[in-house]
Amino acid sequence: MKTKFYLGCVMMLLLLSTTINGQHLTGLGRDSLQEISDYEISKRFDLYSKNIKTGEISDQIIRENIFESYSTLVTDPITIGVTYVALQGIIGSLEATIRTVSGDIAAHLNNLLNTTNAVLAQWDYRLADRLNRTIYELNKTERRIVEDTESLIRMAQQTIRQVETGAIELAKVSAGEADILAYNITSIIKRNKEARFVYSQPNKIRIGLNEPVIKLRGNFLDFKPYNFRIQGYQSELIPLGYASNEVSIKLPNDFLSTIQSETTVALTAEPWNRRKRLLWFGYRYWRSSSKSLTVVLKPQVDYTIAISIAPQAKVPTRHTFAYSFYDIDDNCNADRRIDRTYVLPPSWSLNDLTQGINLQNTSGPNCGSGLIGRGAYNSGDFSVVVEGRIKGCGYSGPFNTFCRGRGWWGYNLFVPAKSYAFQPIPVFEDFVKVTNQNQRSFTFDYPLENIPSESQEVRYTYKITVVVQEGSSTRTVEISDVNPNVEGFRSRMDDHRLSLEIDPITRLLIATNK
Question: Which of 25, 65, 78, 511 is positioned for an S-S bond with 30, CB 3.0–4.6 A?
Answer without folding.
Answer: 25
